[in-house]
Structure formats: C-alpha cells, structure tokens
Amino acid sequence: MRRAFWAVMAWALMCYACSDGTPEDGGVSAERPYVLTLLCSPGGLGDNGYNDNIFEGVARFVDAHADEVEFHLRTPSSLDEAQEEYEAWLSLPAEEGRNSLMVLAGSDFMAFPDGGSPADGRKVLLFETQRTDYPEGVYTFNLSMYGVSYWAGSLVGMDGRDVPWADSTLVLAAMPGDPVLEEAIQGYSDGFCDHGGDFCRVVYLADGYQGFSMPDSAFRVMSRLGDDGYTMVYPLLGGSADGVYRYTREVYWTPTIGMDVDCSGVSDGVLFSVVREMDEAMEAYLEQWLAGEVWPARQTFGLSSGWTDIVLAPRLSGSRWQTWLEACRTEAWAKEEEYYEALSLD
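Request: output the structure for the sequence above.
Response:
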C-alpha cells in the first residue's frame, strides 16, 4: 500500500513540475482553463488510508483531464499554514480565480470558509462536516458513518453475545466533539448493544485535531489498555490508527477493525475493515464540476451510495463472520435511514 502511494505522489510531483503555474501561482492558464487546488490536512498524506485515498481520487481525475485542468497540491505543516494557503487563494485577482476550485481535504478545515463567500467564480469543496451555514460558493458532502458503524458494532456484538467475558468493546477516537466521529461512535455503540454487547468504552487520544496524526500516542494507549479484555477495538483515528495496528503486530494480538481502506494486510488482528471510498466520491464530484453541473450546497451519502462498506479479511471468507456480515447488512441500511429521519424531525 505504501509503494502505491509513493508511485502516485511521484506522478503528482511530475505533473506539478510541468504545470504552467509556480508554487506561488494558483491562477488560470490560457491552455488549461480550470484550476484545481487540493489542500491536504497537516501530516495527512502518507497515512495509508483516508488522506491517501482522497489524493488518489484527485490524481485519477487530473490524469484523465490533464489538458483541461491545472493542478496544485498544498501540503501545509500546520493549521496556521493551511489557513494562510486558503486566504492566499481567496485573494487571487478576479481573472485568476475564475473556474477555480479549492478542495479542503479534512474536517479540521471546517472553519476556514467562515470569513465570507469565495468570489469571481471560485468554489470551495469541503467534506466531513454536517454544517449548513456556509456562505454561497462553499459546498459540502459527508460520507455517513452511522450506518456502516452500526453494521460493524452488530458484527462485534454477535461475536461476543454467547461469551460472558467478551461483552465489552473499545472505541479509540482521535478527539471529542467532532461530529463525524461522534456519529460513528453512536452507530457502533447502538449496533453493539442491539446485538448482545454490554459496554462500549470510548477513549479520546487528544483534545484537538492533532489526535489524527499521533500514531506513537495511540501505540502507548493500546499498551495501557490493550490487555483489558475488549472483544474488539474500533480505531477512529485517521493516521494515528497506524499505532493501533503496530501494537497488534508487535505486542499483543488484538481483534481490531480496519479503517477507511482494507487493512487486513496491515495486521492479522484486523478481522474486517470499515471502508469509505473517498477516491470514488472525489472523482464523481470533480467530474460534475468540470461538466458544469450545479452541486447541492450539502449532501450526505450513506450505505446506499456504495461509498461506505465493510470488507471482511480474506482469510475469514466462508466463516461465521461472512454469515453475520450478510445477515446484518439490511438491518444496518434500515437503521441508518431511521437515524437520519429522526434527525430531520429534531
């Protein structure tokens, strides 16, 4: 997986070096009338999961439309630097901002657009937020974590329901208060308890977004909690999940859920993975942008979109886990619909 990421990175750097713009220039060129800028989360690229998946979707789109789209990759080292990059893009002259799209790749950027509407035909695409109060020109989408997390919790609950000592599970989350994480925790806990589980413990790695890029801290937390007898670990950690997988490989085999991509090859402890096809979602949105289609201001996609799913470790194909996976699928879809219907009535 790491080799594939660096191959795509090499491609991106080659395209970047051959572009008509310089690192300081984000404007429209005469040859390529559309400009796409991807602003990555600090430390996000190279996580073998969520951030790399976003980048790969963007890379495929740019590769397919290299004659039309000028691409700029921004990899800030901090949120302050990311804010400066965003404000510099907003301040481009009108003629350079036309047909320009900024993709803010992470929920840690959700406050960036609060300063006002992007002008002169610029658009901002932001995801992993459920806010509805953004200014005109800012568009959001969210891959729901409730349904797929309910599904995951159901599987774990069924696995432990006939074993008295296996009635608890651990959620290790990057930070408190993030709506996407809290939705995932709620769904997982609901599914776990609805199918025989008794106790879902939640531990937060940090107080802020740095929790998504602290794999060493995740390793230390697992070293402290990993032998407490939890039937499964659900690591809602972004890049910090690498610390959990490392613990299951090097210290103590612990049943674990892979996150964002199929992680069964990372550790034998990963029994199944909660997958979010961010690359496919990105490609679909970017193709619509290039075609001039008008996006809804806000969209949420769940299990029915095919962009969230559960992938079982290949070694468990044909096992009881396969049976449970299929048995719980329909219920998870229904629970997700009920969840959002209830939210719409509040």
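Residues 19 and 70 are 7 Å apart (CA to CA).
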